[in-house]
């Protein structure tokens, strides 16, 4: 197979895997869909189109110059834990399913949440510094087209799979009662809180702070 075909297949496989795998962004996207509707969920889903290009650029630049990125990834994990905790608190303390009247306001707010969630999550950084970045750097030796194909298909499948999930959740929620909405949102809040704890532990380990607790 040609380099272009290999990079297309890689982009599709990695994009679909990242798009449907459990994580802070997909959890937040589902929560936004339930609370505000499919438009808010779809808006949050496109956040990687805004956040990932700069991350890719930084990853490709640093991979050829920096050998140890543990401290950087650790700091991002700790920051991510703080923001995810905020999102969890917001979901856990919801009292009712009151819908906002301004759809544009809801969508803008959802996009901001999606951008912050993705920027402060260690997942994209870990992926691009450990998998995506090396693939891109290696393919650049053969030309820019294979790298562009990988990025295009990866982001397309990443965002597309999340939008499909949003549409499925939006259709299913019509059969739920308001109390079930609230319970589901609170459950998502608990999942976010678990992610926050995991990211905090991972971040402390990466920056070396967890060693002080070893006895």
Mean pLDDT: 81
> What is the count of structural domains?
1
Number of continuous helical runs: 9
Uncertain regions spanning at least 5 consecutive residues = 98-105, 210-215
Cα distance, first to last residue?
53 Å
Structural class: mainly alpha
Strand residues, percent: under 5%
CA-atom Rg in angstroms: 18 Å
Shape: globular
Please give a structural write-up:
Helices cover 82% and strands 0% of the residues. By secondary structure, the chain is mainly α. It has one domain (3-213). Helix 2 runs antiparallel to helix 6 (103-120) and helix 4 runs parallel beside helix 6 (103-120). The longest helix has 30 residues, at 144-173.
Which terms summarize this structure?
single chain; mainly alpha; 9 helices
Give a short overview.
The protein is mainly alpha-helical and 215 residues long.
Write the layout of secondary structure elements.
Blueprint: H1 3-20, H2 24-36, H3 38-45, H4 47-63, H5 70-92, H6 103-120, H7 122-140, H8 144-173, H9 178-207
